Amino acid sequence: MDTINTIIGIVFLLLILVPIYIINNNVKKRKNQLLSTLNELSNDKNTKFSETDFWSNNSGIGLKGNMLAYFRKGEDAQVNEVVDLKEVKKCSLVQLDKHGNVPKNSHEINKLALHLTLNNHKEISLVFFHVDALNFIIGEEFRIAKKWQEIISSTI
Questions:
Q1: Contacts of range 87-90, beta carbons closer than 8 Å, 24 or more positions apart
Q2: How much of the chain is in helix, strand and coil states, percent to nearest 5?
Q3: Residue 16: what pLDDT?
Q4: Most buried of the four, 102, 104, 118, 144, by CB within 10 Å?
Q5: Distance between CA 148 and CA 130 in Å, rounded?
Q6: How far apart, in whole angstroms, are the C-alpha atoms of residue 77 and residue 58?
Q7: Is 121 left (phi over 0), alpha (psi -120 to 50) or beta?
Q8: Using one digit for the tens of pLDDT, what is the confidence trace for 108-136?
Q9: Over 60: is that where the pLDDT of 22 sits?
């Protein structure tokens, strides 16, 4: 009787632990893939990123010294931006509704982006959220965008 209970206990323990291990392993692999995408954008392969964030399994941003690297994989193409933070004159968080106006409340956000204005008057938009077939509910993107606005603004 004790051996049967022990075997049943071990089976139940394995039924709990094996899926947790598999999920954790998949998350690590995905993060490493996203980190390697950021590293591909960087000129300096020897230095590690001091700060990184990834969201929606298709986007990432990282800071390496004064260099900001950003990517967003879309259905058709991938957007890559590498910006020297010494060149950034202004950084603002932009929220737009489906008509391109500032939304009246947070439930109407259709697009969330960091808008960078450089010293040479070039403007770069780093999109953190845009409503499409895959992304239609804003999640952690707002927190991440706000964090990076503060990081970039602190270097200006």
A1: 87/118, 87/119, 87/120, 88/116, 88/117, 88/118, 88/119, 88/152, 88/155, 88/156, 89/117, 89/118, 89/119, 89/156, 90/116, 90/117, 90/156
A2: 40, 30, 30
A3: 92
A4: 144
A5: 17
A6: 11
A7: left
A8: 677 788 989 998 989 998 988 877 656 66
A9: yes
Token pair in block for residue 155:
């270097």
Q: Any idea which residue has 């932009």 for tokens?
A: 94
Q: Is 129 exposed, middle or buried (0-12, 13-18, 19+ CB in 10 A)?
A: buried
Provide φ and ψ at 24, rounded to 5°. Answer: -60, -40
Q: Is the dihedral of CA 28, 34, 35, 36 positive or negative?
A: positive
Report DSSP state, residue 139: -
| DSSP state string for 33-84 | HHHHHHHHH-S-SSSPPSEEEEETTTEEEEEETTEEEEEEE-SS-EEEEEEE
**Other residues' Cβ atoms within 10 Å of the Cβ of residue 117:** 15
DSSP class of residue 99? T
pTM: 0.73
Contact assessment for residue 63 and residue 80, using Cβ atoms and an 8 Å cutoff: no
CA dist., res. 94 & res. 112, Å (int): 6
